[in-house]
Hints:
alpha/beta; 30% helix; globular
Amino acid sequence: MTLTDKHGRVHDYLRISLTDKCNLRCVYCMPAEGMHFMENDKHLSFDEIEEVVRVAAKLGITRLRLTGGEPLVRPHVEDLVARLHAIPGIEDIALTTNAIFLAPKAELLKKAGITRLNISLDSMNPEKFAEITRGGHVHKVLEGLEAAFRVGFHPIKINTVLMKGFNDEEVDDFLRLSIERDVHVRFIEYMPIGHDGDEWRDRYLSLDYVLERCQALGLTPEPTQSVYGNGPAEYYRLPNARGTFGLIHPVSDHFCERCNRLRLTADGSLKPCLFWQDEFNVRPFIGDEQALIHLFHRSLDVKPESHEMANVLFEENLTHAATLRRMSQIGG
């Protein structure tokens, strides 16, 4: 049994947000005035998440990613990982984290069944990192990264949201990191999720800039397909590099035609698309497998062919209603 939408796209990947809470306040994820986080009892319980995943696995979902907010602010995440890892049909469980709390948890998570890590790191400069995250300490992230290496996670990917005037001057440093360490740096275009007006548009920068920096440095990137993962990145390897860098450009060159993912928010909404408002609450159907199966198929029935983020950049009309949630409320 497979989950196939009306555009012929097979979905085998579910991203699960464990919480909307985060210990950082990144400028692209939350507004300056902060967020009103949901009460803990509004989060799906581990039992509820496990039940949804069991049904999803029967429908052909084989790969999971745990996100937030920051998933490691939720206690005992490793216990949930072990439960999901034991579900027949689940082959791969990845984790996206800001790595502030990763160092003491890395070995537990690996033993529980996390197969791959994505670490969010938008700047390696302590002052710039603190500015982007509104008070975070980059040395904690770097400690988490070293712990991930030490316990043997592979591959390790670093997610870097590129923002004009914030961290574009560090592209060279991240490219150098991909040469010196066995990591996969993925530059991600700033997306208009939950934003309105010119704030987002003024910070947006096409990822062509990364290739321009390669050229300016006299480096010739070679396309590579050697990086395992579920995402839409186009990967390149620089001469004599131990790692790679990737480009994820949902705005300038969207990848919707090969989308294979659904999202489950921390409060239990199944979202067929990151950008659009459509979502379906699973909570009323917990305990009814057939109803959950129907809900999965219903979510795919309304999934549009494209997210149209480029329309926001060029101030063009949208064909659907865009989400009102911020990125931290969706799970990325």
